[in-house]
Amino acid sequence: MIKIIGCLFIIVSTSCAGYMLGDKLRKRVADLKELQRILISIKNELKYSIEPIELTFKKIARDFKNPYDEILRIAAAKIYNNEITSIDEAISEALAEKEMDLALKDEDKLIFTEFARSLGKWNIGAQEDFFNLSFVKIEEQLNSAEDFCAKNLKMYNVMGPCIGLMLVIVLI
What we know:
Elements (H helix, E strand, L loop, with lengths): L1 H47 L4 H9 L6 H13 L6 H11 L8 H13 L5 H48 L1
């Protein structure tokens, strides 16, 4: 009886692990799409508004769901309270605080941080070039994440139960 319960526990736990890995792939794709929307929102706000960046971040945060609204609010608060003077450091620290809620890779975070570093340093034309460059980089990451997800999602979902069954067979 204990053997059967142990075997079921192994199969269920490895199945859950496989599904969680697959879910992480899907979440990265969704996070990259959300990051893309944030870039577009920041671009539009800065292009047609003359508000300070912290107010822009707060305004944009209303349009997004957690954890991205929190990232923008944390960055805005750090800039507003003069805890940090550069926008990229504020974004980096906000991303670090919310890292557990994100499925982004370091390259994705680096793109967003580099984008933030460019904010407010050049004229509108150069700024728009940085927006476009960041958008293209995010688009490339999104395409590669979608391809990886399409190729490996089913494998992760099937591999979990298979590994569990293999372990059970070896243990029996």
